Known about the structure:
alpha+beta; four-stranded antiparallel β-sheet; 7 helices; 10 strands; globular
Amino acid sequence: MGGGDYEDNYSARGLITRFHPLLIIIMTRHLVKIPSLLMTTVSVGLSSLDSTLFAKAKPCPLCGGKPQPYDTKEKQYVMLSTPMGRKRITVRVRRFKCKECGTLIYAEEPFYPDTRLGSAVVDMAISLSRLHSYSHTANIMNALGIEIDRGTVRNYALSNLPIPQANFLYGMQLPNSFISLMTTEISNPKGSITSEDILAASGYPDLYKAPADGKGTSAEFQKQKKLRRKS
């Protein structure tokens, strides 16, 4: 085994120690073991999204008119922390204007409405925060190479976004959208992952509409979680 010890920059309480094949996060009340293979899978899988173009748009939601290409916007999907340094993963989203009414229309994209991180990353934050504190969730994701802070995790956990279905991978509960995205990249020849592959694996998140009663949302779950702790 090899590796070095270093202080966790994201939590004064934490100490992250690198070993192979496990990354062990030792905190005041928690011990989490993360296989290095999972860290590699996360890095390679998310890196495969870089510079993907999303260029398919539906008819105008206001009048049903035909969308015409307008421009292309670069959006950050995630910031990765790698042994070689920080790596900004972006996707390109084509924007259209309705030929009839001039409404600006975005192509189908791998983002929930009004969010700044890719949907699979948001799903991971929500999924892990069901089991862990916001701080510990951020520490786990940072250990996986995904840059995120406690405040961002908290915002997503308390939002009206859906609770993603999840399964265990390498001993860690991860959202199915994230697992599907990783396996889609691995199963395809290098460079063959398409925007449609990404959208399908992600569950077409840009189409999500929060229920008016908040049922089935992360916010509702966190509210019930808090009540259970008090009882």
